[in-house]
Amino acid sequence: MPGQKRLKTAKHDKSFSTVNYEDAINGGGEGANSVSNAAADPDDLRGDLRGEPRGELRGDLRGDLRGDLRGEPRGDLRFPARRAPLLTTVPELDATVICCRACPRLVEWREETGRVKRKAFREWDYWARPVPGFGPSDAALAVIGLAPAAHGGNRTGRIFTGDPSGDVLYAALHAIGLASQPGSSHRGDGLTLHGVRITVPVHCAPPQNRPTTAERDTCRPWLARELQLLRPSLRAVVVLGGFAWQALMPVLSAAGWQLPRPRPAFGHGTEMRLAAGEEGRRELYVLGCYHPSQRNVSTKTVTPAMIRDILRRGAGLAGLL
Ligand code: SF4
Fold first, then answer.
1. Tens digit of pLDDT for each residue in 131-144?
2. How far is the CA of 204 from the centre of ligand 1 (A)?
3. Which residue from 204, 238, 270, 320 could staple onto 288, CB 3.0 to 4.6 Å apart?
4. What are residue 179's DSSP bridge partners?
5. How far apart, in Å, are the Cα atoms of 172 and each of 77, 127, 177, 247, 292?
């Protein structure tokens, strides 16, 4: 079934409006998902900037975003570092990260992919923007992947949605009771997560699924802020793959958790408990898990059962089971 039809249906699905970044894109009306609007379309966010019921952006931030939407900081490498610390809620973060154009190579790739499309998805209007995290703002468990897939998250606008990796991940989350359904095909499919939030250290689809270290570092302030905002509820993190592991360590350290020395290398099943570092704050468990990429799964480097076991362990440590 052509994806475009599903997307249009999704716009009127009540469950579709539960995340603020969805409000942001729906404010622009029909065509808000189109690739031609991929560059932080002012129409998309105008609804938010006018207020109710989308009035959650603070006044100074609204002013800042108006500037962004006029185009001044596009391609500004400092955009994430300047903007992320100002955000005070996860929905605000979601609504802001989708405006980011800090990495020229990734902006070009995500938009080019959305224009050219894969034959099987030629009727889709690709998202072709940064893909925000997905899941509740008070999650006890975070799952951290790598980056959106060119024809997965970059097409559908939701992380791990519409690609084989997501099929494995969401099936595992559903099996342990943390996802409302095993499949994840598009943003309006009704999927909800319970106690778990999925995010990535790089929010734009990279060529060959390989962001550069410079792109990872440019994107880091979004992840750092997201984890800071989740911190009051966060008890455990499952890290999918070595790239995410490397990306996460400085973020955790900067957020005040005490990392062991030497830092453990990534491995499937690696587990560490980080002291809170500050009185009154709780410790954090960090677990390594192979990424459920198509290659890892097809070579049986990782199996659905292995993914499920690590997620179950993380959910248990987070107090969700
Ligand atoms: S990868 Fe991150 S920092 Fe770079 S453009 Fe995308 S959202 Fe912005």
1. 999 999 999 999 99
2. 6
3. 270
4. 193
5. 36, 25, 9, 24, 11
